[in-house]
Amino acid sequence: MPISQSRIVSVLANVSGIIPTAFGVNCLLRPEHALGFFYFQNLRTPGDEQLVTYLMIVYGVRDIFMGVAVWVALYFGARKAAGGILIAVSAVAVADGTVCKMNGFGEWDHWGYAPMVCGLGLVAMGVLD
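Below the sequence we write its predicted structure tokens.
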């Protein structure tokens, strides 16, 4: 059996869908806390507070979408599509880390996740078969 078809790849991909979904739910329910993942908690001013909250909702929906997209692809047996989505998720982690680096620190909180999920995506796509 090719490694891309193994049960462990499916389980790991499902778990990889949980992570962005959980972060997304956190953004919707606790935008102030979620903002801390970017180390921006001290940047809020009273006039900007509503805008920042709205942007965190958009960010949360984006994260939930990423996780659900992985799950839907896996549910319908589209492992290559799930692999492509996981690679895209890794690109989002790189972008998020870059924003943190531009702010001065915290980039590795995001960059550490990117190679793992990208590698899993490549395996799910059958690169190692």
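The first helix runs from residue 7 to 29.
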